[in-house]
Design a protein that fits this description.
Mean pLDDT: 94
Order of helices and strands: EHEEHHEEEEEEEHHH
Strand order of the largest sheet: 2-1-3-4-10-9-8-6
Largest sheet: 8 strands, mixed
Number of helices: 6
Helix content: 25-40%
Low-confidence stretches: 204-212
Radius of gyration: 16 Å
Number of strands: 10
Length: about 210
C-alpha cells in the first residue's frame, strides 16, 4: 500500500475532509501544518498540501519541502495556497472566478483534458473537475499540462523536470468545498483524484518506467 501523508491546515473544513470517513483511508499520516518544518517526510510516497492551507505557514516549511523533492518525493499542491511562493518553477496568474457560468444556457467553463492518455483520466472525467477555478499556471518547459483552460494556461499539471521529485500542482479547491458541505462535484473529483494517486503511488518505480 502507498504511504501518503496529508497536511492538516487546522481549519474546520480541513478537519472534516481529512478525518472524515470518506477519505481518511487514503492517508497514512496527517501532519499539522505548523509541524511541517520539522517533519520527517522521507518515508512518504507523496505529501498532499490541501487547498486553502495558509501560505505563510507553507513558506515557513519551504526548506523541508525542497529537501523532500530533492530526494525524489511527490508533492501535491492544491489551490489557493500561493504555491508559487514555496514551490520552485511555479508561475501563477490570477483569473476572476466565474461562480455562475452554469446558469447561462449552453455555457462552458472551458476546461479540457490536455493529456487525455494520462492515467488520471481513467479515474477522473473532466466533468468531475468542473466547478470553478481561481487562476491558471504557466506550465514549465518539459512538464505536462493535465487539465487546461481553452486559450489560457492550466489548472492542473505534473512536473517531473524542475526538481528531482514530482510536483502535481492545481488551482482547484476540492477539500475546501467537501469540508464545507457544498459543491458536491468536488467529492467526485476527490474520489477520482485520490483513487488515481493511491494507485499511482502503489506502483513500483521500475514498473512505471516499463509502462511509460
Amino acid at each position: 500500500m502507498p504511504n501518503i501523508a496529508i497536511i492538516d491546515g487546522g481549519t474546520s473544513y480541513h478537519h472534516c475532509a481529512l478525518y472524515g470517513e470518506r477519505y481518511r483511508r487514503f492517508f497514512s499520516e496527517i501532519i499539522y501544518v505548523r509541524d511541517l518544518p520539522a517533519a520527517c517526510l522521507d518515508q512518504f510516497d507523496a505529501v498532499i498540501i490541501p487547498d486553502r492551507t495558509h501560505p505563510g505557514l507553507l513558506r515557513a516549511a519551504r526548506t523541508r519541502i525542497a529537501a523532500y523533492l530533492a530526494q525524489g518525493g511527490t508533492v501535491v499542491a492544491l489551490g489557493e495556497t500561493q504555491a508559487h511562493t514555496w514551490l520552485p518553477g511555479v508561475v501563477w496568474s490570477h483569473r476572476p472566478t466565474n461562480f455562475w457560468w452554469w446558469k447561462t444556457p449552453g455555457s462552458n467553463l472551458g476546461l479540457y483534458a490536455a493529456a487525455p492518455e494520462h492515467a488520471l483520466f481513467q479515474h477522473l472525467p473532466i466533468a468531475h473537475a468542473t466547478w470553478h477555478y481561481h487562476g491558471v499556471f504557466t506550465v514549465p518547459p518539459g512538464a505536462q499540462a493535465l487539465i487546461g483552460v481553452e486559450n489560457d494556461g492550466a489548472v492542473l499539471y505534473e512536473d517531473t523536470v524542475t526538481t528531482a521529485g514530482r510536483m502535481i500542482v492545481s488551482s482547484l479547491d476540492p477539500f475546501y468545498h467537501h469540508g464545507s458541505y457544498f459543491m458536491p462535484v468536488t467529492e467526485k473529483f476527490l474520489d477520482g483524484f485520490l483513487g488515481w494517486l493511491h494507485q499511482d503511488c502503489g506502483v513500483p518505480a521500475k514498473q512505471q518506467e516499463r509502462d511509460s
